[in-house]
Design brief:
CATH architecture of the largest domain: 3-Layer(aba) Sandwich
Largest sheet: 5 strands, parallel
Helix content: 55-70%
Order of helices and strands: HEHHEHEHEHEHEHHEHHHHHHHH
CATH topology of the largest domain: Rossmann fold
């Protein structure tokens, strides 16, 4: 069951006895748990109707004590167990015997208790205990939002601060964050913090403009990388090195720039190959797991290279990386030489 479906059921008072909440987007998991608490636990009576057990301190005896206690002036008792490794593929801190006992107990839990297992790690759907929850209760997958839902979420958050943004501004916001794609580094909590910064930046102004986004968001690093690649595409080594020096002056670690540039070169090759097969930028974004905006930029930048040249650059990058890590050359010099190499015309 998705986060959306779980929230819909919660609002309709369709409440199960057992839940397993997991997924990459912990912001949504926390939101579900908070709304669940508000639904079940009366204010001021938390000590009598809410029990919390850390996975490392878990025992079946503790769980039974918590679950068997009747709710007080409430419809249900809520018991939350966090990060119990038995649901994951990791080496578990529970014996086979205890796992069987837990599975057995799930089948005879009091009707007046809701038990929520909350895992910040991914789960192993093949395990019997996971299948037991799926059969007797609900599993809630709090995965990251897709681009459409993310844009709606951002717009809703902006409105909560009594601010407004045009479609153009929302698009600019999306382009300046790092949330979409397999290699994305930001969560919804990070995005919310970015929104707070923009809101504070504009003060009493009601409308958030594109220049506000570009002036305050932290993901200017990605834009700097794209500007460097713009110079590379135009075969302008001086401008490319200037962009590199700007990033270094602003405090970006050389190692981070190297890793990001290497990733972009690989994306250029993947994009070029898929463009040759007739894929659109949107389809490429989905296929290789990058933000649609990044895919569009890669499609544009890849025009300045042949497939053979991009394969050569990927190989040269790997050689440079090995040289730097082995101490054969200083990383700043190696990076400058690689950028100059990228600016050379294809043979």
């Amino acid at each position: 069951m998705s986060y959306k479906e779980a929230m819909k059921k919660l609002r309709a008072n369709d409440i199960a006895n057992i839940y397993l909440v997991y997924g990459e987007e912990m912001y949504l998991a926390e939101r579900f748990l908070n709304d669940f608490k508000k639904k079940l636990v009366p204010v001021g009576l938390e000590d009598l109707n809410l029990s919390f057990i850390e996975g490392k301190e878990f025992s079946l005896e503790k769980l039974e004590d918590a679950c068997e206690t009747l709710p007080f002036m409430a419809e249900r008792k809520l018991v939350i167990v966090k990060d119990l490794e038995v649901f994951t593929s990791k080496k578990k801190n529970m014996s086979e015997e205890d796992e069987k006992a837990l599975i057995k107990y799930m089948g005879k839990m009091p009707e007046k208790t809701s038990l929520v297992f909350y895992n910040s790690a991914s789960i192993d759907a093949r395990k019997k205990i996971v299948k037991t929850v799926q059969k007797q209760g609900e599993t809630v997958n709090c995965e990251k939002l897709n681009p459409k839902d993310l844009k709606m979420w951002i717009e809703k958050k902006i409105k909560q601060y009594d601010k407004a943004a045009t479609e153009k501004t929302l698009t600019a916001f999306m382009e300046n964050i790092d949330y979409i794609g397999k290699t994305a580094t930001q969560s919804l909590l990070d995005i919310e913090n970015e929104i707070k910064k923009v809101v504070a930046y504009i003060g009493d102004q009601q409308y958030i403009e594109v220049e506000h986004i570009e002036g305050i968001l932290t993901n200017n690093f990605q834009n700097d990388i794209f500007k460097l690649l713009d110079a590379v595409e135009k075969k302008q080594p001086r401008e490319a090195i200037k962009r590199l020096n700007t990033m270094v002056y602003e405090g970006e670690p050389i190692r981070k720039i190297i890793a990001t540039l290497g990733n972009q070169v690989r994306n250029l090759l993947k994009t070029k190959l898929l463009l040759e097969e007739g894929y659109t930028s949107k389809a490429i974004a989905s296929k290789i797991g990058i933000h649609p905006f990044v895919a569009t930029k890669c499609a544009s930048h890849s025009k300045g290279f042949t497939i053979e040249r991009l394969k050569e650059l990927v190989e040269k990058f790997l050689q440079m990386d090995v040289t730097v890590k082995s101490g054969g050359m200083k990383e700043d010099i190696a990076l400058e030489l690689f950028i100059i190499e990228m600016c050379k015309e294809s043979k």
